[in-house]
From TrEMBL:
<dbReference type="InterPro" id="IPR047817">
    <property type="entry name" value="ABC2_TM_bact-type"/>
</dbReference>
<feature type="transmembrane region" description="Helical">
    <location>
        <begin position="66"/>
        <end position="86"/>
    </location>
</feature>
<feature type="transmembrane region" description="Helical">
    <location>
        <begin position="98"/>
        <end position="117"/>
    </location>
</feature>
<feature type="transmembrane region" description="Helical">
    <location>
        <begin position="177"/>
        <end position="202"/>
    </location>
</feature>
<keyword id="KW-0472">Membrane</keyword>
<keyword id="KW-0813">Transport</keyword>
<dbReference type="GO" id="GO:0005886">
    <property type="term" value="C:plasma membrane"/>
</dbReference>
<keyword id="KW-1133">Transmembrane helix</keyword>
<protein>
    <recommendedName>
        <fullName>Transport permease protein</fullName>
    </recommendedName>
</protein>
<dbReference type="GO" id="GO:0015920">
    <property type="term" value="P:lipopolysaccharide transport"/>
</dbReference>
<keyword id="KW-1003">Cell membrane</keyword>
<feature type="transmembrane region" description="Helical">
    <location>
        <begin position="214"/>
        <end position="236"/>
    </location>
</feature>
<keyword id="KW-0997">Cell inner membrane</keyword>
<dbReference type="InterPro" id="IPR013525">
    <property type="entry name" value="ABC2_TM"/>
</dbReference>
<feature type="transmembrane region" description="Helical">
    <location>
        <begin position="138"/>
        <end position="165"/>
    </location>
</feature>
<dbReference type="Pfam" id="PF01061">
    <property type="entry name" value="ABC2_membrane"/>
</dbReference>
<keyword id="KW-0812">Transmembrane</keyword>
Length: 302
């Protein structure tokens, strides 16, 4: 004889049956002990999603993925022309203006695009968030990974431009040296930092969409506050608060990249700067991940 209807569909019976069949409730934040392994299981999906996002950019243009290289090159050319040759801002305390600005523009663009990718991680994938059960952290991670995929060939172009700029008259030499290898850990630290920032922006914009409109202005302020086109130490180092700009995260990673490639007396290899960069990466990656995880159950409800 079948059990009574009210007993068959009691909440306790439904929950037990669902768990026995591997089903989970939607919109419930799992514990970190469950969340992190689930995220690791989807590492292949993250890689495929990141590659597809990178390949989808500029697919409707004639030059396609070439724009991933042309955009930072053109940006660097504009800044070199205006600030380096016309205003000669970059020459203050810098021996090779071209290489200095090129490295700054290429590295900052990666941060800027990662910031944008994080802000759109949840908002532009709302249908996926509402229909499929998976750790939402997959989305901001894949967004930054897609930008890293685009950055890889751009770094080669950046290094080539920096090296040949040292052969021009009136520009400081950029010799090949072992320290060029340090660009790899510098980029990895920047990647970890950008992933942490992406976590934060994904949750903030998902809960308050209006903030997305303010991101371009914040990025522009950070560009000038991080010394992308001029030496922070030369212009603000004499002020008592100059160290704030020098040791803020974005400026730190620009300094690490420049000290790895350029032969600038103003940017020597500094162990303290590397420790600061490691600290910023750890703080933002762990803190950003926890902040994003705490809002897991809210994504897709608005």
């Amino acid at each position: 004889m079948p059990p009574p209807l009210e007993r068959t569909y009691a909440p306790e019976w439904v929950e037990t049956t669902a768990r026995q069949n591997g089903l989970d409730r939607m919109g419930v934040r799992p514990s970190l002990r469950e969340y992190i392994p689930e995220l690791w299981k989807r590492r292949t999906f993250i890689r495929v999603l990141a590659i597809s996002k990178a390949q989808a950019k500029n697919q409707n243009t004639y030059l396609g993925q070439v724009w991933a290289l042309l955009t930072p090159i053109l940006n660097a050319f504009v800044y070199i022309l205006i600030f380096g040759f016309i205003l000669q801002v970059g020459r203050a305390g810098i021996e090779n203006t071209i290489a200095f600005i090129v490295v700054g523009v290429f590295m900052f663009r990666f941060f800027e695009m990662s910031l944008t990718a994080g802000s759109k991680a949840i908002r532009t994938n709302m249908n996926l968030v509402r229909s499929v059960h998976f750790p939402r952290a997959v989305l901001p991670i894949a967004g930054v990974a897609a930008e890293l995929t685009t950055l890889a060939p751009a770094l080669v172009v950046m290094c080539v431009i920096a090296y040949f700029s040292g052969l021009l008259p009136n520009e400081g030499a950029v010799p090949l040296a072992w320290r060029w290898l340090l660009l790899v850990p510098a980029v990895l630290l920047l990647w970890c930092f950008c992933t942490g920032v992406s976590f934060i922006m994904a949750r903030v914009v998902a809960q308050t969409p209006d903030i997305d409109n303010l991101i371009p202005f914040g990025a522009r302020i950070l560009m000038y506050a991080s010394g992308v086109i001029f030496s922070i130490d030369h212009f603000v180092g004499k002020f008592s608060w100059g160290w704030v700009m020098e040791y803020q995260p974005v400026a730190v990673y620009l300094s690490l990249a420049r000290s790895s490639i350029l032969n600038e007396p103003a940017y020597p290899l500094d162990p303290v700067m590397w420790l600061v960069g490691l600290g910023w990466a750890a703080v933002f990656l762990v803190g950003g991940f926890l902040y994003f995880w705490q809002g897991e159950e809210t994504y897709g409800r608005n």
